[in-house]
Amino acid sequence: MSVWTDLPGQGAVVEQLSRAAASERPTHAWLFTGPPGSGRTNAARAFAAALLCEQPDPAARGCGRCHACHTALNGSNADVMVMATENVSFTIQEVREWVAKAQDKPSSGRWRIMIVEDADRMAERTTNVLLKAIEEPPPRTIWILCAPSPADVLVTIRSRCRPVGLRTPPLEDVADLLVRRDGADPALAEFAARVSQSHIGVARRLATDKEARERRDRIVRLPLRLRGVSDAVIAAGELVDIANADAAAASEARNEAEREALLHTLGAPETGTLPPAIRSQLKQLEEEQKRRARRSVSDSLDRVMIDLTTFFRDVLTLQLGTGAQLINEQLRGELEGYAANSTPEQTLGRMDAIADARQRLSTNVSPVLAMEAMAVSLL
What we know:
By secondary structure, the protein is an alpha/beta fold.
């Protein structure tokens, strides 16, 4: 099993990156772009693993079996640094710290690799700090930036990076990955790939988490039970509750694992009162987790909006008779009934209301108020 296993439907990208990994002088800066769920971060980690692979034959790099491949993929390789933020944007201080670390020589591999997730989350002044490092990198440092599209990164940055464009993988490839990698039932894997619209991360969660599937089902059925303003207000509160529950479920296990790992690293006693120094580190971790929780709720609310939009996308598909595959095929009967009792113009208006709510949620508007305004517009 190679490092490229988790990149279904990206044959051209895999070929491009494999050739670069086999080169003795690969490009020093890369920009990975693609829509949500296309696997930008997975591709970046796989490329880092291939660059550091211990196979003596350059053509075999990215084997997925050696120590360097394993550690690069699981995030424990000392020569691979992944920069991510749980906040709205990266701070200039964070970027300065990365630039300083990028000057270090590789500790054991051929390269020091700096992966920047969500490179689009940088203000122009912050990006200019990174620009200098990319223009004049140390000889053994490689930068890999990830963003939804080239337009999301300043032209001064993207002009100095080699582009890698990922695409949304086909449903069949995502379903096959879920079966092979996660042992999912084939029918369930096909369902998860379809309703997630080939978003690999979301598909995996739906295929492996029954509660996540139930939460999504409640979301997409919501328009079917809106009869008046009171229903809309109740539904809005339910959507916020679903988003909160989804975010909590996603972060609970991770938070506990981080806490245990920190205590183990610091040599904390198993019983009794923790020393002040350890309590201080633990408090800092908890503050970071709280900031991440706020970002997680925001992301969950956005996912709620995306799932809700698929209902009206299917309704419009039926109203226009395009013959396209329904995302929510399991609701075909209910969708046909809803489509027959409304017009395409009404459906488009409801989709616009959801888009407006997504825009409001990206600001400091109360989620409940934004959801209530949207739900009333769906009547």
